[in-house]
Amino acid sequence: MAAVLHDTYAKLHDLVVWLIRYGQDTREVRRNLDPECEARTLLALADGLTVQVVAGHHSPATALTILQRNIDHLLENPSDRD
User: Fold this and answer.
1) CA nearest 63: which of 55, 52, 74?
2) Residue 12 confidence (pLDDT) above 80
3) C-alpha dist (Å) from residue 80 to 22, 41, 76
4) Residue 75 pairs with which residues in a beta bridge?
5) What phi, psi does 45 have (nearest 5°)?
6) pTM over 0.90
7) Per-residue confidence at 32, pLDDT binned at 50, 70, 90?
8) In the chain, at which end, N or C, are there fewer CB atoms within 10 A of the end residue's CB?
9) Rounded to whole angstroms, what are the CA distances from 1 to 5, 6, 11, 13, 40?
10) Any idea what DSSP says for residue 28?
11) pLDDT at position 77, please?
């Protein structure tokens, strides 16, 4: 199971890095950010929030708000978002 989790997380990390770089290429994501670091941060935050929701410390809505705030940090113009 550990090998499957390792592989799955590695692929998810690579996908998030790719998405951030794509966003930088399309000028939707701030270009001064390190995609590798930001991907690690997003995934760690999502994992931590999952535990907090399951443990009853945060509601799913609160967790989503926290995660969205972090994603907004990545965006070039977060106020332009729909």
Assistant:
1) 52
2) yes
3) 18, 23, 9
4) 29
5) -65, -45
6) no
7) very high
8) C
9) 6, 9, 15, 18, 21
10) S
11) 79
